[in-house]
Amino acid sequence: MPSRTASTVLRSLVAEARGRPRWDEPPALYFIYMSRGQARLEKAPVPDWAWVPEPAAGLFALASSAAERAAARPKPGLHAVAFRGEAWLAEAELGTPQAGELARDATARRVRYRADRREVRQVTAVDRGGSTYEVTLYRDTGETLTHVRAQGQVQAATGAVPDALDLLIRAYLGISLPPRGDFPAPGR
To answer: Is 124 a residue whose pLDDT tops 90?
Structure first.
């Protein structure tokens, strides 16, 4: 069960995912601050180049570039960083030929062309303790899935976005986070 702070952060991320009136928006990076038991998201100024052609690559570039970090410097009291973006998802049962086909399509960036694809808005965040928050909003149904994973959990979230957010937290706060495990998160 997530802590009170984690639940508050997760609620703010759900509100961000559901509260956007339009789809097909550019990605965004947010700083999350905690004050009096409330989470406040503040959109970070990110140069347009960061999102083209691959948003996760832009996050890595921001994390590794001191000049760009200076332009998107958080205020004191930063609790977490979050990334909002849209993607195409498809699902297949692990160990099946369909899963292999999906993995090849994902690697080749062809999921958007699959008949079984679904468009989602995802908000992923990493906090100063290394916990990862994931919100997935399905465009076709409005269904929202959420996960909070504490650092070190067996099914810790992995992938380019959580890894880049880890780097940003390390860079902005000057703290170290343990490396993520090799265990895939459900649906990845």
So the answer is: yes
